[in-house]
Write a structure and sequence with these properties.
The complex is a heterodimer of chains A (about 325) and B (about 325).
Chain A: E1 3-6, H1 10-21, E2 28-30, H2 34-44, E3 47-49, H3 52-58, E4 61-64, H4 71-80, E5 84-88, H5 95-108, E6 112-115, H6 122-132, E7 139-148, H7 159-162, H8 164-181, E8 186-193, E9 201-208, E10 214-221, E11 229-236, E12 239-244, E13 251-254, H9 275-289, H10 297-316, E14 320-321
Parallel strand pairs in A: 1-2, 1-4, 2-3, 4-5, 5-6, 7-10
Antiparallel strand pairs in A: 7-11, 8-9, 8-14, 9-10, 11-12
Helix pairs in contact in A: 1-9, 4-5, 5-10, 8-10
Chain B: E1 2-6, H1 12-21, E2 27-32, H2 36-46, E3 50-51, H3 54-58, E4 64-67, H4 74-83, E5 87-90, H5 98-111, E6 115-117, H6 125-135, E7 142-151, H7 164-167, H8 171-187, E8 191-199, E9 211-218, E10 223-227, E11 240-248, E12 252-256, E13 261-266, E14 273-277, H9 282-295, H10 304-323
Parallel strand pairs in B: 1-2, 1-4, 2-3, 4-5, 5-6, 7-10
Antiparallel strand pairs in B: 7-11, 8-9, 9-10, 11-12, 13-14
Helix pairs in contact in B: 1-9, 4-5, 5-10, 6-8, 8-10
The chains are: A alpha/beta (about 325), B alpha/beta (about 325).
Chain lengths: ~325, ~325
């Protein structure tokens, strides 16, 4: 199966590395910036295409790792060319856009996999298994945290291009909350910002459910460069799960701190199991076999709807009712 | 490939059965155990055929066996298996005396079967990466290594672990071999000498040691240590841990091989607070490697020699503790 990566940025590289490790050969790559594309192609061992339709003609699957504002056009062109599509999260900038992408997939008869990678992190999977087996009893309060430093690329900082932090980053935990408990009844969120130049942004959101369960989600681009923390805390009437990225890892390296800080915060992938590999192996195998995806496109759309509701609540400082 | 388990005396047998069942093409033909209570219990628990004698199991002509008896009985079982033409994966420590270990080597060589020592930590991705970083020189010259392999007292699971005649000792022979093997493997050299303090501060009811601290000099000059104690209480949220800190001139590596857990509290379970691991079990990769080496007719990546040298470090610790001097393990014959 030949894969063409669109977007020679950080996620494109993360995916390229994962494809290499799972034995996918003959990667193709496209980017609007020919200089970035050339670097990417030589460093990642991909065949560069400066023309998107030409790449579409050569590959079986298109993996869109381009900025969010470009998702719709890139995905629709790929479907029109008869290609299956992997789309980096978030699905789109708006629910309407997301619906159009889903419709384009349906009408072309091709398949869409939205890469919600947190669903492939072993600790998040294991925690959900315990919850779905009923080992914690009835779930009362869930707390989810994901706080990074502001990404370096300018488009992230422009909500018109990235959807802003709730849509770009917090969507992971909003999707996880939905995966655990389904959709909430209402949300309330508050946003804190640094000065314009700093791009610091931090959101605290509460999701409320009809049965009294609640999920508190903290997300942010608010830490100094290099720091990225995530955690989960799931409390039921029969049990409790705590996990935090602050906990010890199997291998920690203490080397001189002279390396430049990273450009984009990513949760740490363990040596034992790289979630990006698990995710892409799953997607390719589902394309191949026709099996359903672990994350249906509709779920990615619902996560986006919830993320936008969180953003609306934060901006309006009011309670937002959701389906 | 048809594989049998020789004895369920060691608690690892239970995990190995599940590891084997996850490998396509492997059939677990059953297990032998002369203890009828264990035989009935585990036959029922795992849906396994139970053979009352080891000879009966071997009469089924397994391609390979896993020897998970009490340590002191490894020799007898390995001899039976080798004579029946079965390849052997042997639980650690491979024996409790130099004499037994040498006899095992002789019989497997004579029979032309392969022998692998069960050192699962070599299959931990964290330790594999640590080894690569040391060997590539990324840490610069290594100065020191500090290792701990703590656990609860295993007698609560199997009494023989704290019986000298069956286990060959207590905490020191149980735990030393893992870190001793990792040091040999990471630095590609033998242990030059061992100084050890060994005692029983934790359990007056048993006649074996429950604590041991070893200081080693490796042949490459690195100063290394091992805490092999059964010093974690039964209420500890996991059986214990294996940790290693490697200090080099350019940096340090902190290995906590079983890190990666959810903290779980349950109202119903016996142990109300637990660390529940979410990373793959290194035993699975080890069992897979054993199956692969048998299928490919290749020497396993962990050999009799590895089991033997690690065992000699543990035995040297006991000699050192009783004679109050440094002991060269390679001089134990």
């Amino acid at each position: 199966m030949r894969v063409g990566i669109v977007g020679a940025g950080t996620m494109g590289r993360v995916h390229a590395a994962a494809y290499r490790r799972i034995g996918v050969e003959g990667l193709a790559a496209y980017d609007v910036d020919p200089v970035k594309l050339a670097d990417f192609a030589s460093e990642e061992g991909a065949e560069p295409f400066t023309d998107y339709p030409k790449m579409l003609a050569e590959v079986d699957v298109v993996d869109v790792c381009a900025p969010t504002f470009a998702h719709q056009q890139l995905a629709e062109q790929a479907f029109a060319a008869g290609r299956d599509v992997i789309l980096e999260k978030p699905l789109a900038l708006s629910v309407a856009q997301g619906e159009q992408i889903l419709r384009a997939a349906r009408e072309s008869g091709r398949r869409l996999f939205v890469a919600m990678v947190v669903r492939f992190f072993p600790q998040y999977r294991r925690a959900r298994e315990l919850v779905s087996r009923g080992e914690l009893g009835r779930i009362g309060v869930v707390r989810l945290k994901r706080v990074s430093f502001p990404p370096a690329a300018a488009w992230f900082r422009d909500p018109a291009k990235s959807g802003g932090m709730p849509v770009d980053l917090m969507i992971h935990d909003l999707d996880y909350a939905r995966w655990l408990l389904g959709g909430p009844r209402r949300v309330f969120a508050r946003m804190s910002r640094g000065d314009r130049a700093s791009a610091l942004e931090h959101v605290q959101a509460t999701l409320a459910y009809d049965d009294g369960a609640m999920v508190f989600v903290e997300g942010g681009w608010a830490y100094p460069p290099g720091y990225f923390r995530t955690s989960l805390d799931i409390a039921g009437d029969k049990g409790l799960i705590e996990w935090s990225s602050d906990q010890p890892v199997p291998l920690d390296t203490l080397l001189p701190k002279d390396a430049p800080p990273p450009k984009l915060g990513l949760p740490m992938a363990g040596l034992e199991e790289n979630p990006y590999e698990t995710e892409l192996r799953h997607a390719l195998s589902a394309f191949d076999s026709g099996e359903p995806f672990a994350v249906a496109p509709q779920e990615a759309l619902e996560a986006l709807r919830l993320a936008i509701a969180v953003r609306e609540s934060a901006l309006s400082e009011s309670v937002v009712e959701v389906a | 490939m048809r594989i049998g388990i020789m004895s369920f005396a060691h608690l690892h047998a239970e995990g190995y059965v599940q590891n084997l069942r996850r490998i396509p093409g492997v059939e677990v033909i059953g297990f032998s155990d002369t203890d009828s209570e264990r035989g009935r219990r585990f036959s029922q628990a795992y849906g396994l055929r139970w053979f009352w004698t080891h000879e009966d199991l071997l009469a089924e002509r397994p391609d390979a066996v896993i020897v998970t008896s009490e340590n002191a009985r490894h020799r007898e079982l390995v001899e039976l298996a080798a004579q029946a033409g079965a390849h052997v994966l042997c639980e650690k420590p491979i024996a409790t005396t130099v004499e037994d270990a040498l006899a095992m080597k002789a019989v497997v060589e004579e029979a032309g079967v392969r022998f692998m020592t069960a050192f699962p930590m070599r299959f931990s991705p964290a330790l594999q990466t640590a080894r690569e970083m040391v060997q590539s020189g990324e840490l610069g010259s290594v100065l020191a290594v500090v290792g701990v392999n703590h656990s609860e007292n295993p007698k609560h699971h199997r009494a023989w672990f704290a019986q000298k005649d069956l286990a060959g000792g207590g905490a020191v022979i149980d735990h030393t071999v893992h870190l001793a093997d990792l040091y040999r493997w990471i630095f590609d050299c033998e242990v030059a000498d061992v100084y050890a303090e060994v005692s029983n501060p934790f359990d007056p009811e048993v006649d074996t040691d429950t604590a041991g601290v070893l200081q080693l000099r490796l042949q490459n000059g690195v100063a290394a240590s091992i805490d092999a104690s059964w010093s974690r209480p039964a209420e500890y949220p996991r059986w214990g841990h294996l940790k290693m800190e490697i200090l080099g001139e350019k940096g340090a590596l902190l290995v906590d091989a079983f890190a990666g857990h959810l903290n779980v509290w349950r109202k119903t379970a016996g142990r109300s607070y637990e660390w529940l691991g979410y990373h793959p079990d290194p035993n699975q990769a080890m069992i897979r490697a054993f199956v692969k080496s048998v299928a490919a007719k290749k020497e396993p990546s962990v050999t009799w020699r590895d089991g033997f040298e690690a065992m000699r470090v543990a035995l040297a610790a006991y000699v050192s503790a009783s004679e109050k001097r440094r002991v060269d393990p390679t001089m134990l014959r």
